[in-house]
Amino acid sequence: QVEVKEEDKEKTAFITKFSLYEFNVMPFGLCNTPSIFQRLMDVVFEPALWKYAMVYIDD
């Protein structure tokens, strides 16, 4: 799971008749989430990319 920065949590907020909610971790429903997750995985696995591993997200 990828944490949402404190200053960006309000951008993920939504309200119901019960309460206001903000995401603490990145949800997979936002338009940029797949590309952000792909970029993060590319950074994390960079030493092994194309040698031992490949990162692929299938929707």
Written overview of the protein:
The protein contains 1 helix and 2 strands. It is an alpha+beta fold. Strands 1-2 form a two-stranded antiparallel ribbon. The two termini are 17 Å apart.
| Contiguous uncertain segments of 5+ residues | none
Mean pLDDT: 91
Total domains: 1
Query: Strand order within the widest sheet?
Result: 1-2
Largest sheet: 2 strands, antiparallel
N-to-C CA distance = 17 Å
Taken as a percent bin, the fraction of beta residues is 5-15%
Summing up helix and strand content along with how strands pair, one would put the structural category as alpha+beta
- Rg is 15 Å
| N-to-C series of helices and strands | EEH
Which word captures the global form?
Answer: elongated
Strands, total number: 2
Helix content range: 10-25%
- Count of individual helical segments: 1
